[in-house]
Amino acid sequence: MSKTEKGRGYFMLAVLWLAYVTFAMNWVAGSSLTPQIMDTFFGGPVDPIIAQVVNYSITTARVFANILAAVIIMKLGPKKAAGTGIGLLIMGLVAIYLPNYWAYTAARMVMAVGGSMVIVYMNPFVAHYIKNSSEKLKINAANTVTYNAGAFVVAVLFTLFAKQLVQNWQLTLTFFASLTLVLFAAWLWKAEDFQAQKVSEEHPLERYTYKDAVKDPFLWRFGLAFASFLTLYVLSLVSFKAVFDEYTLVNGSVTNLLISGFGIIGTFAGIAIGNKDLPRKPVLFMVGLIMVGSFTITLVFANIHPTVSYIFAAVCGFACYVQYPIFLNLPHELQGMHPQRLTVMFGLFWAIAYAGQTIATIIWSYLLGEAGYLPAMIFFIAVISCYVFLVLTFPETRQKEKLVQGVA
């Protein structure tokens, strides 16, 4: 691969990275402005389930979008498929000026389809342009932090400029959503195509279909474990701000800032650990215990000692992202992996993960509205604890030869 081709590959990966960051900013900002949006469309507060409909619709749309992503890339090719995904993000801008809540929700669903396509298509681009395993882990780590980076930017802005940002939610969301237009133009300007189904000249293509993926027990365990992870991570940044502000002594904007900020620091630790000759399962298990335990402590002390909650919210954010790049790099480390197989695997993986997270979120918000804060939090802790048990069922992807070398 020439330097020019590799440079163009890095450019496209950067555009995809920034596109998903802007999607995350738009999603988190919209969730942070839920009270103002509800007031505009309904004239005041509404039931928690209705208030969360946008988040449900976004995650539901992502389930179907991820399943379709592999089909679309095979039909259109990587350039057009990824460009379509970035283009659909523009619906986040259209949604802001629609006349009612349900039209707004539908447009945000289309935006979510675009976001799902972008995150799935990162994998074949990485597989095609990045060959060095150490460099691949770093790129995948950068890709895992996209949502976190967007959430962090929004958390900082809402912590420092809360009064200004909530005065006109339409103007605020217009700013975040407009960034997508710049990235779409950049993609049209310099993106190139490649054969997503080609493995290499030395290794013939082993066709991998959704039928193969559905029969893969690892993929189901992998997806359900991530559903548990997402329930913790997404709710802590998207839904818990309003919950903390209403039910506890904790400031929701501060917890968002700490979780997302320390998550970025944790990413660098995850890269360092991932590039060491360490087995994957023990690392994921131990860091998973820290992640679940620290957020549980955050909830326990939320009405007793807010400072303790803030400290452990930071620990949770750090732990989330220590393991995140290692976790999502596992399929890349499986034997016989290639761009087409990765696209199919991650399409079903994200679908399973977001379906599980959506179901958990609906039950959680129902309990919050009908049974109250404590039962909802008990259910929440039970769901996120599943992650710790599921990672123990994963295959060990670290090659034995490397482990022997590391011991020696």
* Number of E-state strands: 0
In percent terms, what proportion of residues is strand? under 5%
CATH architecture: Up-down Bundle
Number of helices: 20
The CATH homologous superfamily is termed MFS general substrate transporter like domains
**How would a textbook summarize the main sheet?**
none
Radius of gyration: 21 Å
The dominant shape is: globular
Low-pLDDT windows of residues: 198-205, 401-408
**Whole-number mean pLDDT:** 83
Give the helix proportion (percent range). over 70%
The CATH class turns out to be Mainly Alpha
Order of helices and strands: HHHHHHHHHHHHHHHHHHHH
Q: How many domain units?
A: 1
Q: Structural class per helix/strand content?
A: mainly alpha
CATH topology: Growth Hormone, Chain: A
Distance between the termini: 34 Å
Characteristics:
408 residues; mainly alpha; Growth Hormone, Chain: A; disordered C terminus; 0% strand
Report what the structure shows.
The protein is mostly helical. α1 (3-32) packs antiparallel against α7 (101-129), α4 runs antiparallel to α18 (339-370) and α18 runs antiparallel to α19 (373-391). It is built from 20 helices and no strands. Mean pLDDT is 83; it is low at 198-205 and 401-408. It has one domain (3-407): Up-down Bundle (Growth Hormone, Chain: A). It comes from Bacillus benzoevorans. This is MFS family permease. It is found in: Cell membrane. One of its GO terms (cellular component) is plasma membrane.
